[in-house]
Specification:
This protein is mainly β and about 200 residues long. It has no helices and 19 strands.
Length: about 200
Amino acid sequence: AWVSVRYAQSGLRPAVVSPLANSTVTGEINLTAVADPLIVGLRFDYVTPTNVTFGVGAAAFDAGSGRWWALWNTTGLGGAGYSVVAVGTDARGFRFSGPRQPITVDNAPPLVAFVYPTNNGNLTGVANLVATASLDAVSVSFSYDNGTAVVPIGFATQTSPGRWELSFDTTSFGEIDSVALFVTAVDAVGLAGTGSVNVAID
């Protein structure tokens, strides 16, 4: 008697092309994969740092680019050690899992706080504004509220790991009983954390 044997073709395994391997993602992102023309359906999964797999959902095929895509909302996830995988299905119903694409998910803004001045403190002349920020911050800036708008003071310089400083000339302000100062830290994916103090200027 003849026995019919069907072999899965390893060459049909799809591959994630976006996001790039070892990149950092945030918020809602576009997942993209390429697959052999014999693939008739595709879905994306993600794998957590503890090696648990969750489904992202079915992908749509874009005939113009020849690629499969789906949106993935990463809100609520965070940290290194995640990976994304594309799973294709051919007309016979065979499934083909592609290689895992390692990524880092960042949905937490950097932490930042004033060191000087302290809340309800006084500034006079040329003051040195100082803040500390978490090490994922790539820029820190200071600003103040003039009563009608938030006015930038400038970008700070990192004087040591996590410590940022900027000179602020207050001589043109006169005497002000209370003004709000703000500090904003931004990380590599554009997430921003803020801190504030109220001070007097004399």
